[in-house]
Amino acid sequence: MSCLKVAIIIPVKRFNNKLKKSIEKCLGLDYQNVEIIVFPDDSSKEFDVFNDKIKVVPTGNMGPALKRDLALNHSRAELFAFLDDDAYPEPDWLKNAVPHFEQEDVAAVGGPSVTPRESTLWAHGSGHVFSSIFVSGPYLYRYLPGKKKLVEDYPSCNFIVRRDIFEGLGGFDNTFWPGEDTKLCLDITKKSGKKIVYDPAVLVHHHRRELGLSHFKQVANYALHRGYFAKRFPETSLRLAYFIPSLFVAYVLAGGGLSFLNKKIALAYLFSMAAYFVIILINVIYSLLRDKIVGPLVKVKLVFPVVFGIVGTHFCYGIFLLKGLLASKLKEEM
User: Fold this and answer.
1) What is the fold of 6-209?
2) What does the radius of gyration of the chain's CA atoms come to, in whole angstroms?
3) Vertex 23, ends 19 and 25: CA angle to 5°?
4) Which pTM value belongs to this model?
């Protein structure tokens, strides 16, 4: 089984330094039977540095899901390993993933996507927001190594799937982005009846957006699609954990309004909100103290930005999930 050929598929708009590092790390993998295929919008001379060690397939302007589907036309590998252009694997990434496919009922394998050591201050901040139990909840294992287990939904930034399963299901549903990976995972588990394995040893490093507007735009987009998917694909998206931020927003608004009617309600409300901030603050301090990557000064600088990043993420996710839930269609369907 270890001799299975793996095609690493990387969709990208154009050549960039993060992609360069990703390719370099893929070329250094502790796994021999592998090919690397990059799908940029247009080819460029920057790719020449790899001296034909990779295959570059210009696609024109198209979305990541469509580019990933093109792997079916350009590789006969038994396994497709999907990787984002701003992510790079550990040397044993495929060595740890491929043995899972010895089990015939395993269709796909995923692993954690951790924040890279070399990230900027604000990217580390975004990473700490996503790796907080108060943001990711039961899905924390996507951002920090957790226990090996079966999962029903997994992001495509670190996702390895059997080619025959991928082809048989028609690849990604290119109607949605993000969210195409949710639809594929649903098809894998429901239509093919196969399993998706999460293994903490199948690890990649995934650059985060800066903690600020770009972070919240990403959160809003995730939430909008998850809210919409709660109607379209309730089998994996209609989960209480996804709705907790919306319930929190409702509590904040209702509690704030009722506080004007009664002093006791106002005091209870203020106490609950203070407790909320204190609990998050304690969690952030504990998380930063355990972080072995960033230095003491960075930890001090990140405490309050991460606290307010978590609070902002709660509001942003809660509001946009409701917007997606109430939407009759998403813009990509129109």
Assistant:
1) Spore Coat Polysaccharide Biosynthesis Protein SpsA; Chain A (3.90.550)
2) 21
3) 115
4) 0.91
